[in-house]
Design a protein that fits this description.
single chain; alpha/beta; Aminopeptidase; Aminopeptidase i, Domain 2; nine-stranded mixed β-sheet; six-stranded antiparallel β-sheet; 11 helices; binds manganese (II) ion
Length: about 475
Amino acid sequence: MPKKKKETKTEELFAEYPNLYMEASSDDIDAAFAFADEYKAFLDISKTEREFARNAIATAEDLGYKDISGVDTLKAGDKVYTSIKGKGFAAAVIGKKPVTEGFNILGAHIDSPRLDLKPNPVYEDSDTVYFKTHYYGGIKKYQWTTIPLAVHGVVYTTDGKCHEICVGEKPEDPVFYISDLLPHLDGEQMNKKASELIPAEDLNVIIGGIPLKDKDLSEPYKAAILKLLNSEYKITEKDFVSAEIEIVPAAKARDLGFDRALIAAYGHDDKVCAFPALMALMAQEKPSRTCVTILTDKEEIGSYANSGAQSVLYENFLMELLAKSCGGVDSFNMLTFRKAMAGTKMLSTDVTTAYDPKYASVFEKRNTAYLSHGLKLEKYTGARGKSGSSEANGDFVAQITDIFAKNSIPWQTGELGKIDAGGGGTISCYMAKLGMDVIDCGVPVLSMHAPVEVISKIDLYYLYLGYKAFIENIR
Ligand code: MN
Ligand code: MN
């Protein structure tokens, strides 16, 4: 008699991606809420890429990480980091296996859409002083009016000093504001297309309204604000050219809903991935393969500049890890490095959109991510026929789903929206260029790129556990 084949149960034939609040134990939900509290606290002090990078360095140094520039050789268990121009960050824990076999990398970006100041930002009009701004990244301009705003950033003066500015975050701080037209007079405005409702040149931020009492001054209101800025920060109007000042929402991260299932906050994209990517690395002591977390700048405007993912400075860090693990920088060999890159595996961790039933027409229901259904594995991104996508290889995807299954990490999958409805990209293509296997992975976000975005606490928690499972287990 031929042996009867074991039949797969009917329910096992189907892919199911259940709601995790439905599935998780109350202990898991408690752990998710506790992790969410850590995230919110970190987010509130890390609204800009500079602040995030600085806090990442502080977190790493507390756990014994050393600046790699001061280290000559590396061995298993050693922990190092580097600052990428103060706006990006990379850190690693050296593994027991030879670094030449490749790295396990988590990568996310720490810049978020916002309003930057123009080089000549200060002007007065009708007894009010304003900042002229230039928006950064993809925003819906009308969302940035009539909300409390904060000013974060730095000004470099020619004496080499860096002057920090952060106003609008403490309860006693003033805030800043972009006005909009009252409904009583908006007849003409309301007939405009939404994309033209608030022109970019009208995103002018109110910063003052008390003049210097000097009748001879042509701009007494502007003069008063310049004087105030000079006494507070030792800067003059010309110094704005070497300033990097960002206007961001003044609100703190808050729990959302009576049941606190969700978090409403500025900058989830992509700090909701960057924070667990940092924490997953910080949890490593002596991993099998060398684990790396890379946090990049400028993703929202194309990953350019020497702090963006296209910069060789991130590659330099990986080269330095390899060289210093193999006898020092003088023993560096390019082919050995290239081969290590070919053996490297990376999760490019960036947010995706959550299905929103109010806007069902732009989603393909069977291939979209849902809030609270776990991290989303995205085999490819891109727009209009996968253009610009860094598509992950099937064997690599299978390796990850196997690790997730063995470590009880729930996940979901899909695309961004309907084909030809739009699209987007991430940093994965720049990393794949070095030869490594890369896949996009992140949590769904409601109202992405709005001043306040929404994520689910349970997704964030399993994202963290998924990142840990990945860097600890991928071969
Ligand atoms: Mn992003
Ligand atoms: Mn984005």
